[in-house]
Specification:
By secondary structure, the protein is an alpha/beta fold. It contains 11 helices and 12 strands. The chain has a single domain, classed as Ribonucleoside hydrolase-like (Inosine-uridine Nucleoside N-ribohydrolase, Chain A, Alpha-Beta Complex), CATH 3.90.245. α1 runs parallel beside α10. It is globular.
């Protein structure tokens, strides 16, 4: 990839995914991080994104993305139970973000990774020439995590997701849904063993240990690598099994936000299984921390 736009709502697993991307992006000439709403309001996710850039990836561009859904209505509470009220359980790196330059127009990057709602993806598709996109989102054969039917990134703006999947064409689109992201995770012991060999490792280790301490583990025992898996499969697509199908998003009724396979829309490649998820989890760990 020669250029890349990353849409994110940092977010604990987003930050891990963005560090993974930083470690993998040696051949990218231009990367823009676009903050959007989702794990927290956009003013909070923007703060976390700028801290990430200042602390980890100073060459990245930054842009404020969208702050509300397409219909202007927030239909779900912010997921403070997972990320804390500030998206990172109060674990911020000590950095100065005042010198970060903010761009005001979407960059014309051909490659996109989306780790958040599809609001900015929908707008990007209308204004720039996307050729390749990897999307973390959806739940096709498993229950959602925002509602019984809907995954969080889709549930927070089903209308934008519906419009994108109905209208895009000629874009190489890969979708990494909950069906596979729930298969990759780190245990407490793995997180506790993160080597404190540099400032990034120390920061993320403290953040993840805080998550293990404060999160209600009746919902999920371990730390699932939702967003990191999407970044990983953007670079190593052969590590997954893909199903070619269009995608339809339900926009009405109790199933609003549900993602289903569809013959009517332009086909995407949807990850439906992984080739050895345990090894993938360990590979992501090694890439991020070693």
């Amino acid at each position: 990839m020669k250029n890349l736009s990353v849409i994110s709502d940092p977010g604990i697993d987003d930050l891990v995914a963005l560090i993974l991307l930083y470690k993998l992006e040696t051949k990218i000439n231009n990367t823009c991080l676009i903050s959007t709403f989702g794990n927290a309001p956009e003013d909070i996710t923007a703060k976390n994104a700028k801290e990430l850039i200042s602390f980890v990836s100073t060459k990245w561009q930054f842009m404020h993305g969208t702050s509300k859904p397409l219909n202007d209505k927030f239909e779900h509470p912010w997921p403070d139970y997972f990320h804390g009220h500030d998206g990172v359980w109060g674990i911020h790196p000590e950095v100065d973000t005042s010198k970060i330059k903010t761009i005001t127009k979407y960059p014309k990057n051909e490659n996109v990774i989306s780790l958040a709602t599809l609001t900015d993806v929908y707008k990007l598709n209308k204004t720039t020439g996307i050729k390749n996109i990897t999307i973390m989102g959806g739940a096709f054969t498993v229950e959602g995590n925002e509602t019984k039917y809907a995954e969080t990134n889709i549930a927070f703006d089903p209308d934008s997701a519906h419009n994108f999947f109905n209208q895009f064409s000629n874009i190489n689109t890969k979708i990494v849904p909950l069906d596979v992201t729930r298969k990759v995770f780190w245990t407490f012991d793995q997180v506790n063993s993160i080597p404190e060999s540099n400032k990034i490792n120390k920061w993320i280790k403290k953040l993840l240990l805080t998550w293990f301490n404060k999160y209600n583990h009746n919902r999920e025992k371990d730390f699932n690598l939702h967003d990191p898996l999407a970044v990983y499969l953007a670079y190593f697509p052969d590590k997954a099994k893909w199903h070619s199908s269009g995608v339809k998003i339900i926009t009405k009724g109790i199933k609003r936000g549900q993602s289903i396979f569809s013959k009517d829309n332009y086909p995407c490649q949807i990850a439906v299984d992984l080739n050895n998820p345990d090894i993938i989890s360990k590979n992501i760990y090694s890439l991020v921390f070693e």
